[in-house]
Amino acid sequence: MFSVKFGNLNDVEHIIRLWKGMMHYHVKFSPLFNLCEDPERFYKMYLVNSLNNPEVAYGVIYDETDAILGYVRGSIISRAPIFEKRRIGMINEIYVSTEHRRKGLGRKLTEFVFNWFTEKGVEYIELEVSSGNSDSVKFWESIGFTNYKLKMSINYGKK
User: I need a surface site. Which of 26, 28, 71, 130 has the fewest CB within 10 A?
Assistant: First the structure.
């Protein structure tokens, strides 16, 4: 049995542990995911500030022993006034521990953040996913997300 609750300050160290797993996983897709020295300190400040922001929600999924198995971060952003859809939801992060994948936890976290967006009056949701992460691309497509923009990069300054 799994339950999803809003993250709080008591969850910070657990979320940081999961976040590190997510970041280390993504390094294989691009060197742009390489972390600076002492990234936990910076992420902790970011996380604590986010937990106090009404435009941000962390959903944390627990098992029956209250172990934290994954999390999702959603935020509400405002786009430039040139766009018809200005206030949108953004799924910034989602991660389920490796040993708990393919058990529906990602969908439960997604439902949680979708419900939060609905309560906030948000109807349009975006996210970014590493193009090399085919499992995640398939997951998001299975929920109904489509690709409308391609984000590209170049290491121009270093050869």
Answer: 28
This prediction has a pTM of: 0.90
Give domain limits for the chain: 3-143
Query: For 56, phi and psi rounded to 5 degrees?
Result: -135, 140
Separation CA 96–CA 142 (nearest Å) = 17
3-143 topology per CATH: Aminopeptidase (3.40.630)
Q: In what order do the strands lie in the sheet with 56-62?
A: 3-6, 56-62, 68-78, 87-96, 125-127
Q: Using alpha carbons only, what angle is made at residue 74 by residues 67 and 85, rounded to the nearest 5 degrees?
A: 160
- Considering Cα of 45, then 62, then 23, then 144, what sign does the dihedral take? negative
Burial-class residue 81 by CB neighbours within 10 Å (0-12, 13-18, 19+): exposed
Residues 53-81: pLDDT tens digits?
Answer: 999 999 999 999 989 999 999 999 999 99
Neighbouring CB atoms inside 10 A of 59's CB total 22
- Which 3 state secondary structure label does DSSP give 109? helix
Taking residues 32-50, report their average pLDDT: 92
The residues, any chain, with a CB within 8 Å of residue 143's CB and separated by 6 or more, are 107, 110
